[in-house]
Amino acid sequence: MAASVPCVSPVRPLRPDDVPAVGGMLARAFAEDPTTAWLFPAARRRARRLERFYVMEVLTLLDAGEGWVTDDRHAAALWLPVGRPPERPPGRPHLGRQLWLNLELARLLGRRLPRAAASMLRVQHRHPREPHWYLACLGTAPEWQGQGLGSAVLAPVLERCDRTGTAAVLDTATAADVRFYQRRGFVVIAEVSRPGDPRLWVMRRAPRAAAAGPTDPLPAVGLGAG
Known about the structure:
The chain is built from eight helices and seven strands. By secondary structure, the protein is of the alpha+beta class.
């Protein structure tokens, strides 16, 4: 009997009508992430606040960058172009919506907003200065993890990075995610840690056309299963 192969839903660009479902999926995907637990320490209210937070995150990234999602909305990858013009026309959010997003973020984070902003700036200072695509968020519904959906939604932008000779950069807060991304060509370039804040790893992926010549093997993969 042939080995079963996980069924991966078709991947397509993120659309505005995906926002509520994808925001809810990301809230469940990151429910136990160290960063979200740090941002929202009250466990009883975390689920509801996380969903509002990720709906805002998806709206912001849909305006400023681009997203890829499985057609069943079980996984999504959201990207920002950094230091280079977007490869598609950028969205132009209405001023009223941008103001609403900022007010909602301040309401959700409350007193933690200044500390969260300072932590984000410390991490950004460790990012490479070269033009790159920044993976702002990658999430898979918990019940669908391990089925290849995360790799599927990463593929469109990583393939473009290889084709255009562009690096990809991300931050992650768990060792398991570090191993996941290492297997996809990312390497750790910095570790950001401060007492009381979550530890974050900054990772970079060189475009494969630049990392290995036409006769060289592909870069070695990282550690074990993530």
